[in-house]
Amino acid sequence: MKIECIRLYEEREDVTLTAYVLQDSQELMAGKKRPAILICPGGGYFNCSDREAEPVALRFAGLGYHSFVLRYSTYCEGGAFPNLSKPIPPKERDQHPAPMNDIGLAMRLICAHADAWLVDTERIAVCGFSAGGHNAAMYATRWHEDPANPRPAAAILGYPLTDYVFKHESEMKQDPGAQAFFHASDTAFLGTPDPTEAQLLDVSPSRHVTENTPPTFLWATAADELVPVQHSLLMAKALADAKVPFEIHIFEEGPHGLGLADQASAQARSQCFADAAGWTALAGKWLEKRFALPLPEKSAFEIMMENGGFPT
C-alpha cells in the first residue's frame, strides 16, 4: 500500500487528503482500476476524529478498495478543542460551504490522479460519520450544483446529522452539555449559535434529496442520544420518496461515535458493540453490488490446469 498525505490548500496544513492506495500486482488486478472510498471523519465541525479516519480507510482497503481520508475545514484547524463553557468567536474560512467544497476539491484531486493511482473514477463513494456524515450527505445531495464536481457513485453515512430543523427542535430535550456542544457547533459551521430558518433548511441534506442523489447506505444506533436515530430515518424517507436506492440498518445498542464499533477504532470497551460492528460487512455486501472488482471468472492458474497443467 502506498500512503500519501496531500495538502488541499498550499497555505493550510490542516485540510488534507490522505491516500491509501493499494499496490498494483500482476497476480491481482494486473493494471485494472479499482473503485475508491472517500472518508469524512466526524468531530462536530470542530475537528476530524482519528477514530473515524485511518481505521475506516484500512477496513475498506481490506475489501479491495482504494481509500482516502479527507480532513476538511473545521473550527479548530488541527489545534486544541475550544472551551465550550462560553461562546466561541466564528471563523469565516471554516464555515459552510467550505467543508462541502473541500469534498469537491478532494474528488477532483482523486480523479486527476486516477491513472497514477489506478482509480475507477466512475465508482467513487463518499463516506462519513456524524458531522462527517452530514458533510458527505451535503455533497451527495448538492454535488450537481457545481459543474466541476464529480458525481459520487454511492454514499455511506454513519449516524449522520441530516436535518438541522429537526436538530434544533430536538435540542430542547437534550441535557445542557449537549445543548452547549450544538450551539458551539452551529457557530463553527454556520457562524452563529442562532441560525435562521433559511440557514437550517439550506444545510439539511434530507430536504435536498433528488434523483441526482446517489444510492445510499445508512447505519445508526437506536440508543444514540447525541444525534438521534430520526436523522437516519428522515434521510431514508427522503431517499424513498425520491426513489433513490438505499439500505438502512438500525442497531439496538451503542452510543454516538462508534466508528467501526470494535477495538480497531475504540478508545475504550464502551465503544465496542458486536452487533453494530457488523455494519462494515453489511456495507461491504451492499458496495459489492455496485463496486465489484473487474475479476475474470477463473484465475490464470485454474485455466492453465484445465489446459493440461504446467508446461513441460
Task: Write a brief structural summary.
The protein is α/β, with parallel strands linked by helices and 312 residues long. The chain contains 10 helices and 8 strands. Helix 2 (98-112) packs across helix 4.
Report on this model:
With 312 residues, the protein is α/β, with parallel strands linked by helices. Helices cover 32% and strands 17% of the residues. It is built from ten helices and eight strands. Helix 2 (98-112) crosses helix 4. 43% of the residues are buried.
List the helices and strands and how they pair.
Layout: E1 2-7, E2 16-21, E3 34-40, H1 54-62, E4 66-71, H2 98-112, H3 114-117, E5 119-129, H4 131-142, E6 154-158, H5 164-171, H6 176-190, H7 197-202, E7 216-221, H8 230-241, E8 246-251, H9 279-291, H10 300-306
Parallel strand pairs: 3-4, 3-5, 5-6, 6-7, 7-8
Antiparallel strand pairs: 1-2, 2-4
Helix pairs in contact: 2-4
